[in-house]
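Ticket 4471: requesting a sanity check on a complex prediction with nicotinamide-adenine-dinucleotide. Repro inputs:
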Amino acid sequence: MKYLITGGAGFIGSHLIGKIITKADKVIVLDNLLTGSKKNIEKFIKLDNFEFKPHDIQHHYDISEKMDYVIHLASCASPLAYTKFPINTLKSGSIGTINALGIARKFNSKFLLSSTSEIYGDPKISPQSEDYWGNVNPTGPRSMYDESKRFAEAATQAYVSEYDLNANIIRIFNTYGENMQLNDGRVVTNFIVQALNNDNITIYGDGLQTRSFSYIEDTVNGLLLALNYPKSEIFNIGNDNEMSIKDLATLILELTKSDSKIIYKKLPVDDPLQRKPDLTKSKKILGYQPKIDIVTGLSKTIQWIKNNSNKIV
Ligand SMILES: NC(=O)c1ccc[n+]([C@@H]2O[C@H](COP(=O)([O-])OP(=O)(O)OC[C@H]3O[C@@H](n4cnc5c(N)ncnc54)[C@H](O)[C@@H]3O)[C@@H](O)[C@H]2O)c1
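Returned structure tokens:
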């Protein structure tokens, strides 16, 4: 089987490749390295069945070799990155998705879109199930990300209905683990780096806002289950163990045996107060079941960050 993966040099992409590379006939990664890194894929680069192509998916990519799967991961994914690169983020989700869909259409490949729980915005219901339409500010400070993904979903659905493309939309909930960038402002890495450095742990807001954190292995298993699902569907993938940001900070302090103090800063505009996936559909249809509990996942992530301690800033 041949795979084309946009954004494959990023956090999730690098783990996904690790799972498929030994059985794949070919994996081609298109990435502009805006937030990803060659280091994430360096162990694959020497393999005969792996190709890295520096390419920005907002531009057409000419390919003649038939791909069985097209997986569209390319996008800025952290608030720091999409605030820094708002136009590229919008173009990755819009023109980039159309370009990726075009490749899938050309070869009748199975298409997988990495969408996000952010399409639910600041949700008015919890947990969020796939049929919830969300509560999104279309011009707010997170809109370049949220709306680009909402467009990407609409574009994917249009290719399913007009061209009968076989495509799955995966709404990924907060995922953490090895190969995350340490300085891109995502809460798990922020807290771990602060704790390991004995710096103050910064909580935005009162810390009572919730998230549901999924360890990378579970998220990637969910993506692979969806990739092998023969019909076009929308699935939430993540972990439904909801916790407050304050409890996350306390747990990380315990696991790192840190002397850091927790300090509080103003909650950013439009920061969602609650985030919990309803996994009923993905469990029932895909047989998806997250397996890694938060203590195990965080411990592995902390160990990896310690091993890469030269990166701690
Ligand atoms: N990690 C999460 O918690 C999470 C949650 C929801 C959705 N997602 C989605 O999963 C996907 C992967 O996220 P990640 O966490 O691995 O982020 P990441 O930043 O580590 O990876 C994204 C990759 O896309 C590349 N990229 C960005 N814009 C591009 C462009 N225009 N052309 C080509 N390459 C481009 C980056 O260089 C990077 O390698 C993203 O689409 C993201 O929106 C991630």
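Notes from triage: The radius of gyration is 19 Å. Leaving this open until the requester confirms.
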